[in-house]
Design a protein that fits this description.
The chain is built from 17 helices and five strands. It is of the alpha/beta class. The chain has a five-stranded parallel β-sheet with strand order 2-3-4-1-5, with helices on both faces. Strand 3, helix 6 and strand 4 form a beta-alpha-beta unit.
Length: 355
């Protein structure tokens, strides 16, 4: 049953399940995307609702409660996720592939957890549990709550029903209200040791494991997700485009990237303008390392190309990296996506060609 969680999460799991009777009513699971906190939260919710847990601390997987959970209709399991995430999961289940999430009225589904979801959850918690046991509220990602939503949730965290457990999953806990954080017990999900990550990826038979592990910042679950999905092809295209940028036309590439971001392939991969900016930042960071004679961290499979293309010195690339951080801050809502891409690629090209 330990295969339900990767090995580096098992010590925390054993610590948590050792005395579930004393589990706090609100838990904040924090860490970078791909650290395993979402998988951990799902297993913990399943365990809290299971009526016949196994001796290994995991849910049995066979009782009625586990079957309801697996089918996604356990009456004591309440999920609060953005409408866009819920719709994407539904479409993927129906069509076998993801697509851009839009509501039935044709409008783009919300990326926020809204106050009506909290009110619905609170009304459900006013009714007794279906099995007379624990009830679980999973909020993922917690930073998707806007301020009115977070303030509404605060009441439930301050005066929780005695049998309710709130699991807040967060990639960016600093974006949460301090009052929310103060009412939760925080659990951090750090990166595993590199040797452990490499061993796990080898067991999963992940191709390009070493390069993808570096690209994902040492997070093996994120590396495995990239390798098994369309994002791997997107990353390869990005590297090809960057390798040709110094001798190509950045304005032309901006147009190609604009079309790429609107394509079905990009939507299925979850490739957004913000993701592209973050990849450019990683490229600039690696270029600054190569300029100092160090090995690249994120694009180790492009080390030779970086050595050839990196004409600018450390100061040039450090400046480029810092400027890209500014682009990233406004990448979710650019005034004009095409001009945004052109300006960003022109800036990167200057760093490539500066001697």
């Amino acid at each position: 049953m330990s295969a339900l969680l990767p090995p580096w999460l098992l010590p925390l799991w054993q610590q948590v399940t050792r005395d579930l009777a004393r589990l706090p009513h609100a838990l904040l699971l924090e860490g970078p995307a791909g650290s395993g906190k979402r998988q951990f939260a799902e297993q913990l919710a399943r365990r809290l609702l299971c009526v016949s847990p196994g001796g290994d601390g995991f849910a049995c997987g066979a009782c009625a409660a586990c079957n309801w959970f697996a089918a996604g209709n356990h009456p004591d399991m309440h999920r609060m996720v953005p409408a866009s995430a819920a719709l994407a999961e539904q479409e993927e289940g129906e069509d076998g592939e993801g697509s851009e999430s839009s509501a039935k009225d044709g409008k783009k589904a919300s990326d926020q957890i809204v106050i009506d979801q909290v009110r619905q959850m609170q009304s459900l918690l006013e009714v007794g549990g279906h099995q007379g046991g624990r009830r679980v509220v999973l909020i993922d990602p917690a930073e998707a709550m806007n301020v009115p939503t977070a303030n509404a949730l605060l009441k439930s965290l301050e005066e929780p029903p005695g049998d309710a457990v709130f699991l807040l999953v967060s990639h960016s806990p600093r974006r949460l209200l301090p009052t929310i954080r103060s009412r939760c017990q925080s659990w951090s999900f750090p990166r595993p040791e590199r040797a452990v990550a490499q061993q796990w990826l080898a067991a999963q038979r992940v191709s390009d494991a070493e390069a993808l592990l570096g690209f994902s910042g040492g997070l093996p679950l994120a590396a495995a997700a990239i390798a098994s999905g369309p994002l791997a092809d997107a990353r390869k295209r990005f590297m090809r485009d960057m390798q040709g940028l110094s001798r190509g036309d950045p304005l032309k590439l901006a147009g190609e990237w604009e079309a790429w971001l609107k394509s079905k392939a990009a939507l299925e991969a979850g490739l957004t303008l913000t993701v592209l900016v973050s990849w450019l930042q990683r490229w600039a960071y690696d270029a600054s390392r190569v300029a100092q004679g160090a090995a690249p961290r994120f694009f180790s499979d492009a080390a030779a190309e970086l050595a050839t293309l990196t004409k600018g010195g450390f100061d040039v690339w450090s400046s480029c990296y810092n400027e890209l951080a500014g682009y990233r801050r406004v990448s979710q809502h650019p005034l004009n996506a095409r001009l945004f891409l052109e300006d960003m690629l022109l800036r990167t090209t200057r760093a490539m060609t500066t001697k």
